[in-house]
Fold this protein.
Amino acid sequence: MRKILLLGLTLFLVNAMAFAQGRVVTGTVSSLEDGLGVPGATVLVKGTTIGTATDIDGKYSINVPAGSNVLVFTFVGLTSQEVNIGNRSTINVALEADITALSEVIVTGYGTQPKREVTGAVSSVKGDAIQNLPLQSFDRALQGRAAGVQVRSSNGLPGGAVNIRIRGVGSVNAGNEPLFIVDGVQLNNQSNAAFTQSNPLAFLNPNDIESMEILKDAASAAIYGSQAANGVVIITTKKGKQGKAKFEFNAFSGETQPMKYLDILGGAEWYAMRRNAFINSGVANPEANALSNMGRLPSNWPTLTRPALDALGLALPTYDWQREVMGAGKLQNYEMSVSGGDDKTTFFLSGSYNYQQASFKPVDFERGTVRIALTHQATKRLSFETNINLSTFQQNVPFAVEGSFLGSPAFSASAVLPHNAIYNEDGTYNTAIAGVLGQNVVLVNDYNSGLQRTNTAVGNLITNYKIAKNLSFRSLFGLDYRLLQGDNYRDPRTPDGAGVVGRSSVQSDWRTRFITTQTLNWNKTFNGVHNVSGILGVEYLSETREGISGAGIGFPTFQFRTIQSAATPESITGFWTGYRRASAFGSANYDYKKKYLLTVTARYDGSSRFGANNQYGLFPSVRVGWSLVEEEFLKNSSTISEMKFRASYGLTGNDQIGNFDARGLYGGGGNYSGSAGIVPSSLANLDLGWETNNTTNLGLDFGFFENRITGSVDAFDRRTKRLLLSQPILWINGFGGISNNVGELQNRGLEFELSTVNIDKGGFRWNTSFNITKIDNQILSLYSGLKFLPANPGIAVGQPVGRSGEGSIFSAQYAGVNPATGRPMWLDIAGNITYLPLAADRRYVGSSLANVFGGFNNNFSYKGFELTSFFTYEYGGLVSDGQYGFLRENGTRLTLNALREVNDRSWKTPGQITDIPRNLTTNAGNELRGNSRNSGTAALLKSDFLRLSQLTVAYSFKPSLVSRIGLTRARIYAQGVNLWTYTDYPGYDPEFTGAGTGQVPLTKSYTLGVQIGF
Amino acid sequence: MKLINKAFLSLALTSSLLVSSCDSLLQVDPRQSIDANGALTTPDAVNAALNSVYAKLRSTRNYGRDLFAMADALADVGVTTSNSGRLIGENNNQPGAHFQAGFWQNSYFAINEANLILAAISGVEGASAAQIARWEGEAKFLRGLYYFDLVKVYSYMPTALYQPGVIDQGGIPLVTEGIITSGPALSRQSPRATIDEVYAQIYKDFEDAKRLLGAGRGVQYGSGAAASALLSRAALYRGDWAKVVSESGLALASSVGTVLSGSAYVNGWRAPVNPESMFEVRFALAEESIGVNESLQSSYTALLNLTNKNSQGGWGDFIPNATVRGYFGIAALQIGTPATDNNNWDVTRNTDVRALLYTTGNTVRGAGRQIECTKFMSKSGFAYADNVPVIRKSEMHLNRAEANYHLKNESAALTELNAFKSLRGLPAVTLAGNALLEEILLERFKEFAFEGQRFFDLKRYGRGIVKTTPVVNLAFDDFKILPPIPQREVDGNPNLKQNKGY
């Protein structure tokens, strides 16, 4: 906005210039940071209105009237400089970056505010910080960028789900996702992809983002009322700027690679392990039994000696299934944008194409986007704006997103018995796979096919009308439309398709959300010291979702892969659901000389989701600030350049429950003998209402040494009251639970953000930013004096609720193996050793929620060279990883492969102290009638990690150099993502959500890119 | 300028209109559900609600798999193959590897639905007396069946209560009032009724069903005869021998179901609806198939069908052990060349016609061409779906023979046993005393292998389970004879006692 004003001013000055007379001074204005020319900088003759603007290369020429001897060079974001002309006719200046970051403008609820005046807890991430990262959705890119914002990728699927938590986990059964707003349109970010994960936020090309603001405290978010309990993320996309059309071309391409291959046993090693397990189990013919498990027992085996059989086993080969199904994937991105405009109209047009393969074939992601942003000043009072984001993305789907499916490569690759060949000698697939994973996963994933497509249109139409000098009206109509389509084919040549002779499943899911927001903005200054402003608004939102899906079986041959070729329709189903919300809101700001700041907001929301007696709710908030630097005693301080205390209290609501959760219903279902059935599906709760978050926030913003050191500290106490809890109902009473408002949950935390300019000398600059958050999460109370929830004892008073509200881990403590016998042991509640822990022996041992996390960024630049390294970290989570769990069984329950480190640790000799029990087979008798080796806390893992999330080396060519070939800008870079992780995690990767079984792990990637402006 | 003013004005007007009528704007009604209040006031709705009570029998946790395959895995019928890794823990009788929480949940949900129907039928508009009688009869038939299945699993049998070391924690909670509102749903905390009270309720429900239902409307629905048959079994479990004799007689005299012999008996297993069935759970649509992983067919055999043994089918996770193979003289037999072709293999058999229900499987997925039970072979016409015979007419003979033995009518028992044996192609025997009882139980074992009866037959005689593989027996006084009641039910209901050992 400022830039536009400035440019306008410049043009005005250019016109004025023609009347002046005097000497001509020419030169170049460049940026000290990168040495590049600064186009559009203002050059003003001091004390006059004579000035000019630099051209595209930063060059200028100005007539200086006699008697004037000083030029003033200014540009937004750079420090102004005054230069004495003397006798020179050429003056080149290099402007320093304006590191007073606090002068930036922050987007807040329904408006903007200078950061200096913000009194809530708001983090801002600029689009530049996440530019060109090969991540499909911007939520993934938020990891480690802002204090209090915890981001975890659910898995390594490109375009997959991301778990984002702002200031902890505030709900158990209602959602924990923040509200995402793109250009004023509140998004529905639920996913419902049938065949893979399709992150709805992946519709937006992250490079189209100008900035992301995260409203963290309830007072900042309260103006969004009933949906703001989990925080609000406001995305502002790039807009056009006045001036001649600027073209930007941006391309990168590279490769994704698995971060890790598990170190598993080879064929002969597995044989030896299994043979020993049979020996330990006292089974006759251990060699023959082990060979039989591996499908390699010769039919004449009774005639062979034990050593001869043993030699057969020890000669078994090893095939690397992991490297067959996991590997490098392609990655590329191309985009083009053009922006510009005149004094009435500005535009920004962009188009992009993104393609990325996962580390598991054939999983990928392919997206095309088109974006249009237009503004038009129709009259002095009336202006229009529109932002339209169109996008389509398509994903080739995995066999399954997670789970112990035999056909799932992420599950089977590490678990299939390693002596099985992948191909026959003639190059065809080997289909005789021995062991419990009796399918060739390479074949299965080659023959099966499927895709998931997501088409999205998010757009708005905005009218601004200036009613009076201090009063303006803004009207926004927005649309969030999404169509999800899926198609999946189980090939008849694969085990899952064989019995049914092929199965084609299709899915379509439409969701349409209309939103309109009408606001009045008013501001006035009284006596030059009392600044007052206010917003009044109304909003209405209506959403419908409907879908149909079906499946057909019986295909003539495998070449027929679409549902119309199916002989038998297998199933057909659909759904319809919807909800509506009507709201009114207002906010008032007052400050005295920018010194004492006060904001009061309130929102009144009504939602169709809640019980008839409780559909409306009021969400007020208050924020106060005291800007110490505006006080006389600090005004002239050379050390302290910024100091502001902030305090806020507010109420927000959570409405992330099912659209009809308050209703008592009979739904369709339970068809029998070819006729339709109905089934009681939910109990009515007419009093069901919002879950409310009451957050108190205390904060301090600081800046030292002309803001070379800036940062903030925030402490918060977020209380979720009237928790939306699925209150368990005894199954004997016919239902599993009822949505109710019971219980209280607390998130207490400390956030610390720090940015420093460590070195800024001779063109060399080193910036560091660091953030850390610590959160304590616990249930304060349940209902009826209960200490824990009967249906889920992990939900317990005094215990955290885990990342997804799944509860704390409540298990019997593992005590390692009995050194004398190698039998696994647990502790009973009294701390005594037991082989058979009971329900009463369970205790609370932690949760999946990491309570310390953050990011650490370093940026070095010198004469066009740039180096960025960005680390993220997490500490304190405890997880159960299903994939590791299966492998930790060490082949004792199922004929699955095993981890070398686990097998090495297994108990072998009396007196050995270890945590892995003696290898046994399932036929070992009574000893196996104890608890299984993974039960209790035995297989839990710490999910701590420190990760080099981003490493970028870039070089920007000198404008003077590239201008010869008609360019204004040229930058090349090499980038690595997730290059290095420090962790002692024994599974694929500690960063995932869910059960961990058969999930595609995160990948690392390398890219090379180029950005060109002309 | 004027135009713009007009545009602005109309915009402001539109938005104020949009906001003015908030209340109606918040009105959204579901389109795929109806309000629970008054849902069951039409005959169509009651019919549909009753369908759901039947449909819950199809659950994998009930007759879809567990009441047959898992019950037999817990007993001494077979061995697990590790082909898919399923049923291993159950076959090893490991702690917790037993009937699952879902069995309890699904059964009680069905009971609540039946109770709601029973409470609603008097208020149905335009219902005939015959309709009301049928609804009541079928709802009670189903409620009785669910209670019978629950009590045989979670409690000891009335005939084997007082073994040393066995601690009787009672029957199961009996609920006969339907719940559709949150008040009672949150407050009702029923304790376990005594075992006797539960059997009394089961008797009552089946007796009402017998009174209200005639020949029924097909074996997939409850009938008076099926109620008698189930009463016969319930009485057998209760040790109410005279009742067994009378109800078996009623069931045998009914027109529902046929006792088959010889090849007709074997062919009965190949028909979509087994003529022996007096009540069976219907799998009518392809989407109802339990699928390749957990269906009865897939649990028992790797074959897809009997016409081509090389077709890739299910898992064959649970197969007959040496004892069962021995009963029928079964061993693998190559009947052609090459040996690699699974169609060139079958089994040897003795004269028992039931031996024809076993054959060799395949090697398609490394299953090792094991000897498998073929009682369930996609007879409903689509993959992995078979109607499940809950009670077959033949059982009436075995029930009555056993009851007559206990009533000291040994000659009647022996006559009935020999008549039954001849139906299966076996010679008559001359036995008396305990040997006669053992022979009746052995015949029951052979007849109902892979039909989920053996575990409960052992349990009602207080016998341990003799395992062949692994060679570790489970004594009757071991706590693992009973499954745990779902922990959430115990945690949330202070009146509910958990079974011992959990």
In short: The domain at 5-201+477-491 of chain B is CATH 1.25.40.390 (Serine Threonine Protein Phosphatase 5, Tetratricopeptide repeat). The mean pLDDT of chain B is 92. The radius of gyration of chain B is 26 Å. Chain B touches chain A through 111 residues (CB under 8 Å).
